[in-house]
Structures
1.
Amino acid sequence: MKGRKRFVVVDTLGLPILFRIVPASVQESDGGPPAIGEAKNRSPCLSLVWADSGYNDKCVQTVREKYGITLEIVTRPDQGDKRRWTLPGAEPQPVDRGFRLLPHRWVVERTFAWILNNRRLVRDYEATIASSLGWLFIAFIRLLAQRLGMVAA
């Protein structure tokens, strides 16, 4: 296996409900619905999931039909057609550049940042998926212990 993909379902605080590690060849639209379904089994009150644009319409429909969960795609405001059409002689409108905070999406991005604070998880060093998953759990045990004041940062 050359590379892995992490499917992470978190609550609004960024704490994990589910980690699922699959080969990197698995597309978001194929690996997302089973991960969301497993998260629904672990957290029955789950009714709304925010995802990035890698999850397509097929995935949104599958999650709604199979699990009764609303999958809302969070897209960038400038996503789509990048061309700026102007009349001859008119000034083109400026294109927004740089960082823009996307609503709801930062929750998972923050979780990935917490994961990457652990050197062992920055790269995929593990030989098996089980050990990679174990290190993810260790990282969050450490994070929660720090928040509870049980260990020094």
2.
Amino acid sequence: MTKAFKTKDVLAAEQDLRSRTLAHMPQRLERLLYLASTRDYNTGVYRHDGLAVRFSEQAACEALADCHREAFTELLDCPLEELVKQLERYAAGTRSRSDFIAAWRELEPYRVAVPSGTDSLSSELLFSNLKVALAILQNRPADPDSPGPGASPRLLLVQ
């Protein structure tokens, strides 16, 4: 749906979603995975109670779908090194970086994060980029200055 044909409610819901929720997710990967998680995998319908209350279920669904497609395109355009950094930051929020990499390589959970209607070439390009980024991440030593989840930042002792 082009902007010229979007209803005011959908545009307002998109703006609300961007300013209240997505603005707190600086990483493209994080935004893509969050937006994919709002979609019912059985029906393809997006749900967000807060948006639905403020606007309507239909406007919320369309706004989420539009933002999901936008997040996918942004991640598809992401340079490989940036994609590796995003994966690294995302993995840092898990209990074990090696378990994260193993699960993502085996289960490929990112495959369900593709917006419906996406052409297969774009999907496969993103999957390929993620596989390469995972391989790079797997072979890159963990950043020793990056605290693990729940860890306190390292204190620097100055003499």
